[in-house]
Amino acid sequence: MSDIVLGIDLGTSNSVVxxxxxxxxxxxxxxxxxxxxxxxVYFFEDGSTVIGNDARPxxxxxxAHTVYSAKRLIGRPFDSPDLRVLIGSFPFKIVSSGDGAPxxxxxxxxxxxxxxxxxxxxxxxxxxENYLGMSVSKAVITVPANFDEGQRRATKRAGELAGLEVLRxxxxxxxxxxxxxxxxxxxxxxxIYDFGGGTFDITVLEIRQNVFQVLSTAxxxxxxxxxxxxxxxQSMLTAFEKQYGYDLSGEEVIIQRLKNVAQNxxxxxxxxxxxxxxxxxxxxxxxxxxxxxxxxxxDAFNKRCGDIVxxxxxxxEEALQIAxxxxxxxxxxxxxxxxxxxxxxxxxxxxxxxxxxxAGINPDEVVSVGAAxxxxxxxxxxxAPEPMAPAMPVSHMDHMSDDEWIEELDEFEEDTGIHRSSxxxxxxxxxxxxxxxxxxxxxxxxxxxQTPPVTPGQIHGGNAHGGDAFQRQPAYQPAPQAxxxxxxxxxxxxxPHALGIATVGGVMDIIIERNGSLPLARARHFSTSRDDQTxxxxxxxxxxxxxxxxNSQLGVLELVNIPPGPREDVQIEVQFEVDTNGMLNVRATDxxxxxxxxxxxxxxxxxxADYYDTSxxxx
Length: 619
Ligand SMILES: Nc1ncnc2c1ncn2[C@@H]1O[C@H](COP(=O)(O)OP(=O)(O)OP(=O)(O)O)[C@@H](O)[C@H]1O
Ligand SMILES: [Mg+2]
Description:
- The protein has three domains: 5-184 and 359-388, ATPase, nucleotide binding domain (Nucleotidyltransferase, domain 5, 2-Layer Sandwich); 225-303, Actin, Chain A, domain 4 (Alpha-Beta Complex), CATH 3.90.640.10; 436-609, Substrate Binding Domain Of DNAk, Chain A, domain 1.
- It has twelve helices and 30 strands.
- α6 (225-244) crosses α7 (252-269) and α8 runs parallel beside α9 (343-353).
- The chain is globular, with a radius of gyration of 25 Å.
- Belongs to the heat shock protein 70 family.
- Keywords: ATP-binding, Chaperone, Nucleotide-binding.
- Residues 413-446 are annotated as: Disordered.
- GO terms for molecular function: ATP binding; ATP-dependent protein folding chaperone.
């Protein structure tokens, strides 16, 4: 097995895989030379599949068995309102499973979305292996900056199902920044504007040589190139109805074909001012053929889709506001994602930031290349490649001497105004932090007896669901952990959403703030509301509103087997830790005894895909 690490951009529409060979990034092509691989899986009736570019034609031939955009479903509960809307728009069947996660019903076999992503990842792994002539098992996979806990867990699981050791998940914009700035000795602020097929993200970063510090990130998971295509499909349906009086909007196969035409028109309009396409469709159940000549100028396209572009700019405003910056403070603008090839998009972003985007960046490949650069740096500095869990320590500062490291931190504090909470420890072994990701199938985890020092805080909180009273305490910041040998880039991402629990009146008590630098830990004290209560249930929410109903429930934290006692005596400290992968770990301590308290974090819609049969996949 080689030490090569795949850098994988697992996209909604397209995926890209790269590796570093002799210090140079190589984007891996398929046999036909394509460097971009559609995230599409086609299932034959016997369960066999074709994936990537070979699967694309089946979108139109057999939409019910051609799965695309699994990334829009991954790690999300079936019942979430957003998902409900989405589900109706897919031509394949999506059902709810016993665990509350969506399943794709393909010829009666139920696939979790991560099973689909696993197939895409396996395809990329195989392309890389064929290209390199050796087997490869390590990967760094990118995710949208605003992916939540459930989505990150499921993505990691998809990697594992594909037989990959996921060294780390990194955020797509951070990967793009890395590809742009690594080894360039830059000191500047950049905006990464990423408009893909299904999502839009904007991230503002500060690059200080080897440090990539996210200042803010904002995004819209329901804004992408697909929206432009859908607008054009609507126009075509209206034209058909006007000309022939037939409403074709309920015809799945026709819609898929029109989407393909629409996308083609959109792509051609990126090069030409006027595009004409001829479409002919049979009226279902008849022998009547409808012909339509559809012409569209770039101006008309811009008018039809201008508001989609403006929505992305509103999100840019939001990101600047969170970072506390003016547009003029952005030194460089990097465009990522296929939708930035739409001339109107490039023009409006240029106008918004009042500057030209950085030239020479391939918007389709830059994320994957950044992931490959990071993966290679992890291996070069190997003794301790950052494992997915426990991943609390800032361990990519690992490979410096103590003096260098302290100097780096001092400089970092001075430049960013972010302060470490305690002096850096010198070369101590990182504490063993058990992680919620280590949980077995039941999600149970018994905390081990390593409790950081605690300053009891005393503000009385409100009532959580189930009448469990709790107390707050000041934030606990983990001390930066001790490091290993050479220098790899330091990526400092932020929490995209606040995390909190429900209190009286539907207000969210924010435990982890939005835009906090990772890794991040906060502690809270909880007590029971009744004598001899042995279980406390706390619903965990994620979102940026103070009102619970405007946020989404991430899951439930249960403190179980609490030793009975008078309620005022019970004091449990819960530590919420978001690691460098952006994943949440929780641990609890009974402050009376200093012993671990059993805590169980269940993420809504977690699909238990561990039970998903991948034997066909890994053969
Ligand atoms: N030349 C072009 N002109 C206009 N749009 C284009 C062009 N090339 C690609 N696109 C659009 O870019 C989108 C795909 O972008 P990309 O591959 O970056 O998305 P993705 O990474 O799969 O999605 P996401 O980042 O949302 O997960 C599609 O909507 C596609 O139609
Ligand atoms: Mg993308």
